Description:
The protein is mostly beta strands. It has five domains: 2-105, Immunoglobulins (Immunoglobulin-like); 112-187, Immunoglobulin-like, CATH 2.60.40; 198-277, Immunoglobulin-like (Sandwich), CATH 2.60.40; 280-355, Immunoglobulin-like, CATH 2.60.40.10; 368-446, Immunoglobulin-like (Sandwich). It has one helix at residues 2-19; strands spanning 27-29, 33-35, 38-45, 51-57, 74-77, 81-91, 94-105, 112-116, 121-126, 133-138, 141-146, 149-154, 165-172, 182-187, 198-203, 209-214, 221-226, 229-235, 245-250, 258-264, 272-277, 280-286, 289-295, 302-307, 310-315, 321-324, 333-342, 345-348, 352-355, 368-369, 388-395, 401-405, 415-416, 419-420, 423-433, 436-446. The strands form nine sheets. Strands 15, 16, 19, 24, 25, 27, 28 and 29 form an eight-stranded mixed beta sheet that branches. The chain starts with a helix and ends with a strand.
Amino acid sequence: MLRYLLNIILFFLSNYLVAQTSELGRFSVNVKKGCVPLEVEIISENLDSSVNVIQYDFNFNTTNNVFNPSNDNSYTYNSPGKFVIAQAINQDGVEKIDIIEIEALDAKELDITILNCYNNSLEIIINNNYYDSYNIVVQGKVVQNLITGTNEINYSNLLDKNNLLEGYVVGLFDNNDVNCSKFDFKISPVENIVSDLIDSIQLSNDLRFFFLTYNPEKSSNYEILIDNKSDSIFFTPSFLYYQYSNIKITNQNYNSRCLKIIKTYGCGNSEVIDEICLIYLNIIENKNGIKLEFNYNNEFDSLEIYRNNKPLKKLYNNENSFLDSNGIIKNKEYCYNVVGYNKNKKSMSNTLCITSKNNFNPIPIPNAFTPNDDGLNDIFKPLFSSVKDYKMIIFNRYGEKIFESNDINIGWNGIYKRKIIQDTYVYKISFVKDNNDINVTGKFILIK
């Protein structure tokens, strides 16, 4: 068995040496193919003792055979190309030439995809065939030779004391990787399977961008698709500082609709996919109030409307419009946004602001009351609001003033001239709210 192994070693060693030896076998070099800058050195000579002159030309021109001797036994090729090293000797008064061809190549960047797998395995996909072969190096040692295409390794025994796999993949020419491109990596083992990838998505107010907040896992591959078209592919770091990460994404043509994020495991393991859609908001004031229109491409469990960062209304039937007609004061700015909830994630619309040109029920005022002493709705008055300089006057259909109050907590009990008459009445209410002078006029019904 030992002799068999020695024969194999000698076989490969002899092939390696032959590959670096000149055509006539009179000299050998350290390397004949590699990445620039490529340093080539004459490492051995096989010459008869009668040879009395030995010279080398590291850029020998085989067309005109002009020999330009060098003063050194090594040379560095800084540009890619094919070159010829020539050895000239004088033996028995005759000049003899021996040559070897050298190939210097650019150190092209490696096109590599790394996919982390379960059970401390790794899938390395080499997408080019520029180099002769590839090595994966961990802690300064070559742990596996790689080929173009898909390679799988188990790194259970290669993790360092911090439970990290750190190393690089390097391209080789003729078993030489000096100055060739490296693909560095640092990997943490897959710890858990995260199914809820997306936390939220938020559309910018100018619609130019949207912001994805997601729950990443260390050393994992992610792909983001916008409307089922790939937008970006990335590999997360081996150490994450926060549970959630944020990504800013350009809103193509201001009309992107749905975002999908795919987490891909290697070694034949399954993918995890999560998706959410954007909500676009538009607002306009009409004669009835401020109308909100919001559109989206999927269903939500619920939608919540916010006014000035406070919840205003919750919707459950995937509606796409809402009329805000209460508590609106003329010449005051109101800012709206809509949040859609889908299981554990949410979609936040752009925020739009509008300055109202009219008052729309700046304080809640009922349109009817029933003064029948049942303890329910027996007094006509606005619902309590924090106002100043309050005054309410009530008129009957003939224009007679039948009630007046300067306290928002004191209302009309329906009695006028010792009678309660079922009819329609008119109110005029004035007050100061948020430093705005407000006058409100309306009708209500007394139901006997």
